[in-house]
Design a protein that fits this description.
105 residues; elongated; 55% helix; single chain; two-stranded antiparallel sheet; Beta Polymerase, domain 2
């Protein structure tokens, strides 16, 4: 690897390791607000919790937003309800997609 290639490689590592900017933080917070609004529309009693680096303030520029969606278990007790819940989560992901990486577990 040449000195120029090594410099470019190390510069990219440093860039990815920098803290987020206030604008990026605002965008992430707006994304969480959109998730909360969409979830509340589907399940009014739902809760959306942020966890991971965004919740403790250690997110880097390339950080994702980790969220957990909670709803009351009685709302998805029957198999048909679970199918509806899965469909609703997929619809939620489609609403949120806008270039973001969505991973549903």
């Amino acid at each position: 690897m040449s000195a120029a290639e090594m410099d470019a490689y190390l510069s990219s590592i440093v860039e990815k390791s920098l803290p987020t900017s206030p604008i990026a933080d605002e965008q992430r917070e707006a994304t969480v607000a959109r998730i909360r609004a969409a979830a509340a529309h589907i399940w009014p009693e739902s809760e959306v919790h942020v966890y991971g680096s965004m919740s403790n303030g250690l997110q880097l520029r390339q950080a994702d937003v980790d969220v957990c969606l909670l709803t009351h278990p009685s709302r998805i007790a029957m198999p048909r309800d679970r199918e509806l819940a899965a469909d609703a989560v997929k619809r939620l992901a489609e609403q949120m997609r806008n270039g973001a990486h969505i991973c549903l577990i």
